[in-house]
Amino acid sequence: MYDMHSYNWKRWNREVPVINLGTSNIDNKRFENFAETWRESLSRLKLPNEISATSKINDTFQGNGYFLKYITENFKNTLVLATEFKKIYCDELNQIIFPEVVHAIEQQLQFKIKKHAEEFIKAHKQN
Q: Per the CB 3.0–4.6 Å rule, which of 24, 75, 119, 123 could disulfide with 62?
């Protein structure tokens, strides 16, 4: 499962990544590689306006949300990837959307989620 969120980067007093994955509550022994391949894939997003798709794991958020914890505790063969996007697609304070950024992320996520999920299913398919 891809649990997508966004956060207001202006609340931080330091440089924060464009994409953060929270993995502290997943079974990292089993799924660390898939979290890393997801992070790495997102770091290759092509974004307009010279925005670099920096990505990190457990930097701004660690994946402590109820949804992730509930699914992880109740469905042992399910991986929840808590994926946080810095609000580079809008000016939240002035309520201005940047459609070119929204479009770029939307178009690429359609491909990246499908490809990553297919790799996960292939690796965990029971014969």
A: 24
Give the structural domain span for 37: 2-124
pLDDT tens-digit map of 100-127: 999 999 999 999 999 999 999 999 886 4
Please provide the DSSP assignment of 99-110 as one string: HHHHHHHHHHHH
Q: What's 120's domain CATH number?
A: 3.40.630.40
Q: How many domains does the chain divide into?
A: 1
Q: Is the CA virtual torsion 6, 7, 9, 14 positive or negative?
A: negative
How far is residue 80's CA from residue 114's CA, in Å, rounded to a whole number? 15
What mean pLDDT do residues 76-96 have? Answer: 93
Rounded Cα distance, 50 and 81, in Å: 26
Three-state DSSP state, 7: strand
